[in-house]
């Protein structure tokens, strides 16, 4: 059973595509001087190319294992008998951007995967029938965005999928036959954010659109949607329905109502009785494991700096103790076989390649499935360290510090000497940074930069007060948290006042632009990846299927439908202050980005050109909100590396052949970055 906890589809502005993991190429000789303090350069192709294998899964019947791996350089799906990866065969033949994610049908007869076109996020759902090898587009309707909703053990061979071909703003619910692709309408959406089915795939609940005062949960009764309960506005980002109980008479929720942090609760639909099953102090319950046979939660995770698992059901205490004992750093349980005996586990130590493992309840042993990128073995990777930084108004900012080997030879997380630092800002902003391996972080550290990642206010996982502290604070208190983190790093001797750059994607791109426009002396330079420059045009151009969450954006950023809201959006837009930019800026954009449209990058680049302010602009015509193709990642980071070396003083691998196979275009500012090919 896949453990995506049926969270409401709140499409935040987070960086949609993970900045790619590693490939199997071997490192060449260093291209910069190597001293006892300076390790060899790790090739970009190792850090940003395809991994050897990724996203391992055990089939629900426990007989097979699947994973994504390159075939002719493109990530495809592979299948092997469980425990015999050497017998793996490729079962798809994609030759484009690759397959980004997959999961099993509960009958173990099909593998399902999603795919869009060049980053447009119009996802389609595909099925591979294992008996024949046939691949079927289960949502073959032009221009739609499909959303996988549910499966049921009692109804094998079918899935419930949301599709918006009738109206781009609203997803109707369909029952889809995996063998034929035939769909049957279950519910036409009258304007709900989402519609939920129970364990028998019957339509039961719906989440209404976000309103100024909150969101209503409706129940389907007597052919009508009847209000059941309300999620107040302050709880909309920290409360979610996870699924139904075995009897289909109640639901499990992450619930922050009448408390600050989200607890795991059981809510009885008749009568509304709520029972708290698990809670944490200072952080939300961050993960829940369900028994696939009983649909009952048996464990949960708390995550401050690292995730820690706790048993709810005493029958699982031994397993959770074993799991915690055998894991360190970051770990996630991704899937559980239908008999509950085999758990697919992702383990992550931050300074080595992540490893997929299988936990066997019968033996208590956690055995290795595969290492995602063996090419990283023996390379000079460095540890990530959790730190807590105080904000100027007393908030605790859970953060992560990674130091270059030259500044921290013994790896204890304490800088022996200052180094140039990159403040790496996460997207969302309704997301969080966590502990673990990051190719981007390792690349920066290997080039000689300290890396600081800050969970600023509005980040999720730390309670609703922390999330809501960011409301109407884009470019203000949220930005102050980043400046406070910079000041902390200077005070700790990690870096110097005048040697800090800022970089990020999506909201992190916005923070980069805000940093260079609103505090023009604070950073040496900035790298903006798919960041919005004009908040008014950002909200005017959100995808139609985000309509139900428009009020969430209005509450958090500013209301584009009121005069006061429009004034606030203009005041907080980096474009308003473009004349004040003094430091070098690199902007990267995917032409098909449906969230932060290309116009967001175009308009600030054009404004800077008109003012005669230097800026370099990289565009990928076959990418969206982030870059999926490894050739494009390698090309972009070659440009970013040369840019940072010039403005921030780190080391750099020559660009060389980094553009080969990439669609990279540089519409403006090539001349401002040395070493780029013509």
UniProtKB/TrEMBL annotation:
The protein's matches in InterPro entries, at most eight in alphabetical order, are given as:
6-blade_b-propeller_TolB-like (IPR011042), AB_hydrolase_fold (IPR029058), Peptidase_S9_cat (IPR001375)
Q: Which domain of life is it from?
A: Bacteria
Q: Name one Pfam family in it.
A: Peptidase_S9
Keyword Hydrolase set for record: yes
What's the protein name? Answer: Peptidase S9 prolyl oligopeptidase active site domain protein
Signal peptide start and end residues: 1-20
- Name one process (GO BP) from the record: proteolysis
Q: Which organism is it from?
A: Ferrimonas balearica (strain DSM 9799 / CCM 4581 / KCTC 23876 / PAT)
Q: Which UniProt keywords apply?
A: Hydrolase, Signal
Q: Where is the Peptidase S9 prolyl oligopeptidase catalytic domain?
A: 437-649
Q: Which GO terms describe its molecular function?
A: serine-type endopeptidase activity
């Amino acid at each position: 059973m896949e453990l995506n906890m049926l969270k409401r589809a709140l499409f935040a502005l987070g960086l949609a595509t993970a900045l790619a993991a590693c490939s199997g190429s071997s490192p060449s000789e260093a291209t910069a001087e190597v001293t006892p303090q300076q390790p060899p350069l790790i090739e970009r192709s190792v850090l940003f190319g395809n991994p050897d294998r990724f996203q391992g899964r055990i089939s629900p019947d426990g007989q097979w294992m699947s994973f994504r791996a390159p075939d002719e350089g493109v990530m495809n799906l592979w299948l092997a008998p469980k425990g015999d990866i050497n017998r793996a065969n490729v079962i798809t033949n994609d030759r484009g951007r690759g397959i980004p994610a997959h999961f099993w049908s509960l009958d173990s007869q099909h593998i399902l995967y999603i795919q869009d076109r060049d980053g447009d996020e119009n996802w389609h759902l595909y099925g591979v029938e294992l008996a024949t090898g046939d691949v079927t587009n289960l949502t073959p309707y032009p221009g739609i965005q499909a959303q996988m909703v549910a499966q049921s053990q009692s109804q094998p061979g079918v899935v419930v999928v949301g599709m918006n071909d009738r109206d781009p703003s609203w997803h109707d619910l369909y029952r889809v036959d995996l063998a034929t692709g035939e769909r049957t309408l279950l519910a036409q959406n009258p304007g709900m954010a989402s519609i939920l089915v129970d364990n028998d795939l019957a339509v039961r609940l719906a989440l209404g659109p976000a309103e100024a005062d909150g969101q209503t949960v409706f129940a389907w009764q007597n052919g009508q949607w009847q209000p059941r309960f309300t999620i107040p506005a302050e709880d909309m980002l920290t409360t979610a329905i996870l699924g139904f109980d075995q009897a289909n008479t109640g639901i499990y929720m992450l619930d922050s109502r009448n408390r600050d942090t989200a607890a795991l609760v059981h809510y009885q639909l008749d009568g509304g009785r709520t029972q708290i099953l698990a809670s944490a102090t200072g952080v939300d319950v961050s993960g829940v494991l369900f028994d696939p046979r009983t649909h009952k939660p048996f464990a949960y995770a708390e995550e401050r700096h690292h995730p820690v698992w706790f048993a709810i059901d005493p029958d699982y205490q031994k397993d959770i103790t074993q799991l915690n004992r055998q894991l360190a750093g970051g770990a996630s349980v991704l899937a559980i076989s239908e008999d509950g005996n085999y758990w697919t586990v992702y383990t992550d130590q931050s300074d080595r390649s992540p490893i997929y493992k299988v936990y066997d309840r019968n033996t208590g042993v956690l055995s290795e499935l595969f290492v995602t990128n063996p090419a990283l073995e023996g390379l000079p990777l460095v540890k990530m360290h959790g730190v807590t930084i105080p904000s100027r108004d007393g908030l605790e900012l859970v953060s992560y510090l990674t130091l270059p080997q030259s500044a921290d030879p013994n790896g204890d997380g304490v800088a022996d000497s200052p180094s140039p630092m990159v403040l790496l800002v996460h997207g969302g902003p309704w997301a969080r940074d966590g502990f673990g391996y990051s190719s981007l972080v390792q690349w920066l550290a290997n080039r000689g930069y300290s890396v600081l990642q800050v969970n600023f206010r509005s980040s999720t996982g730390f309670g609703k007060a922390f999330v809501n502290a960011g409301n109407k604070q884009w470019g203000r208190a949220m930005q102050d948290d980043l400046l406070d983190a910079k000041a902390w790093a200077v005070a700790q001797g990690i870096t110097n006042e005048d040697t800090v750059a800022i970089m990020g994607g999506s909201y992190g791109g916005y923070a980069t632009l805000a940093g260079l426009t609103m505090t023009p002396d604070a950073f040496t330079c900035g790298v903006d990846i798919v960041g919005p420059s004009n908040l008014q045009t950002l909200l005017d151009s959100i995808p139609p299927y985000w309509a139900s969450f428009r009020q969430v954006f209005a509450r958090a950023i500013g209301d584009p439908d009121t005069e006061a809201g429009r004034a606030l959006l203009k005041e907080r837009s980096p474009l308003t202050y473009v004349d004040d930019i003094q430091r070098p800026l690199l902007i990267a954009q995917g032409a098909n980005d449906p969230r932060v449209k290309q116009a967001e990058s175009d308009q600030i680049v054009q404004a800077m050109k008109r003012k005669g302010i230097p800026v370099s602009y990289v565009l990928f015509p076959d990418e969206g909100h982030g870059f999926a193709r490894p050739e494009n990642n390698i090309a972009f980071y070659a440009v970013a590396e040369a840019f940072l070396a010039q403005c921030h003083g780190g080391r750099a691998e020559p660009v060389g052949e980094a553009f080969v196979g990439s669609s990279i275009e540089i519409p403006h500012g090539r001349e401002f970055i040395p070493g780029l090919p013509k």
